[in-house]
Amino acid sequence: MKRKLLACVLACTMVASLAGCGGSASQTATESKPAETTAAEQSQAAESTAPAEETTTEAAEAGALEVKSGITLNVTTTFAGEESNVQNYQDAVKRWEDKYGCSVADSSGSADETFKSRVISDFEAGAEPDVLFYFNGNDSNPFVEAGKVVTIDEIRSVYPDYASNMKDDMIPACPADNKKYAVPFYGFWEGMFVNKSVCEQAGAEIPGANTTWEEFMGICQKIKDAGFTPIAASLAKEPHYWFEFAVYNHDTPATHASVPASLDDAAGKAWAGGLADIKDVFEKGYFSENTNTAEASEVFQSFIDGKSAFYIDGSWKMGGIAEATEDIDNFTVTFVPGANERKATDIISGLSSGWYITKKAWDDPDKRAAAVSFISDMTTDENVSLFAQTAATALKNGVTLDTASLNSLQIDSLDMVKAATGVTGAAQDLCTQEQRAPIFDHMPEIVTGSVAIEDVISQVIENMNE
User: Fold this and answer.
1) Which residues of 4-17 are buried (b: 16+ CB within 10 A; e: fewer)?
2) Apex CA 245: angle with CA 350 and CA 406, to 5°?
3) Average per-residue pLDDT in the chain?
4) Of 230, 381, 444, 446, which has the maximum CB count within 10 A?
5) From CA 281, how far away is CA 286, in angstroms rounded?
6) C-beta of residue 268 within 8 angstroms of C-beta of residue 457
7) Distance of CA 118 to CAs 81, 89, 111, 438, Å?
């Protein structure tokens, strides 16, 4: 989610790269023993602070964290489906429930566009959860602007130790008002997973640090000629990974985290060039045959089953791959081949999600303490280390990681991150789900040519100007 050598590897490749990437930051620190703070310890260490609301309980007035038993906390996260930490999340929820005698009403879902729309709709309808694990880029703007979540500063005015184990300068601010709401959990990187047996059977080389986009197209053709699908992808449900890297191939790490103001500016040209490349890959027949109608789970299974060679996803997918196969050594992860000024070793990474407390929960004197305790327990050094593994974190003490416990895919991921030359956040995080919908909801129409690339980019620009 470290031995000192391992920590240095990650720190060297991640720490300096995310300082100006649209609110994302990433770093792994040196090895340290996790220091979990219990509710009792928080109570003893907390300063006496005046309550933020007149309805605050006496415990809150004293800065203590005393949770009433019997509370049911409504929680929504992205720990669902094939996300690698689903079991860790469920175990952590159970520990919290047993510790406080409370319960969690969970409504988590897979982090796709449908889930994002559902979360925003719930806020608009007044049906938001008490605790939310969600994205901290522009996707959070609607409920931040509506005043429906609480800042970390306000929470600390009552509970001073809240998120005290995190580096404050690595807690991303919301683009809407530059205030910090979400406690970061662990970061991510994105890369291209490879089914080795498909490449071997096709006599195709596995892409590496120096593979160019043109060379990658040749590799895909060789795999296609051998009767396999080169790229497992659902453009109908998960177009964003290919969008991100295709656009990145017309950018650099210094320029990628930007959105177009016009078709003719640098970002507008990069987006147009990237979408044209995706259309070209589709026309060459390198994507899954049913890419324009398939569910994400379908194409992932084709990758696991040895029908497809390549699959782009994030670091969180490693656990899903390990759970889906009995032969983890058959899989590796590598760089997405680069083009133009972008090196293949220029990657996408960041701290793009975090834990929110909603205003609804904060204004409820009982749920307030429960929500704070839930997030505090979820984000202890020990828990973050468990979830993060090889990913980046904002922990002051860094994560602890026993390399002997890693599988071959995780070790390969460390080698990939070690060789990274540049890092940027995701450009799509600078748009809300509604703003980028003309592209993400209509990728099948874009690649088939029924919708013009220039038209969808213009619509995104118009949406952002509203």
Assistant:
1) eebbbbbbebbbeb
2) 50
3) 87
4) 230
5) 6
6) yes
7) 16, 21, 11, 18
pLDDT range class, residue 63, cuts 50, 70, 90: low
Question: What are the Cα distances from residue 139, in Å, to 119, 275, 431, 436, 438?
Answer: 10, 22, 7, 10, 15
β-pair partners for 353 = 135
pLDDT tens string 224-241? 999 999 999 999 999 999
The tokens describing 194, both together, are: 């490879």
Question: Quick one: which of 167, 338, 176 has its CA closest to 253?
Answer: 338
CB atoms within 10 A of CB 210: 12
Contact 217, 274 (CB under 8 A): no
Q: For the chain, what's the residue count?
A: 466
Summarised one tens digit per residue, pLDDT across range 86-111 is: 999 999 999 999 999 999 999 999 88
* Confidence check: pLDDT of 400 > 50: yes
114-146: buried (b, 16+ CB within 10 Å) or exposed (e) per residue? ebbeebbebbeeeebbbbbbbbbbbbbbbbbee
CA distance 76 to 97: 16
What does the alpha-carbon distance between residue 133 and residue 429 come to, in Å, rounded to a whole number?
A: 16
Work out the pLDDT band at 349, boundaries 50, 70, 90. confident
Does the pTM surpass 0.70? The reply is no
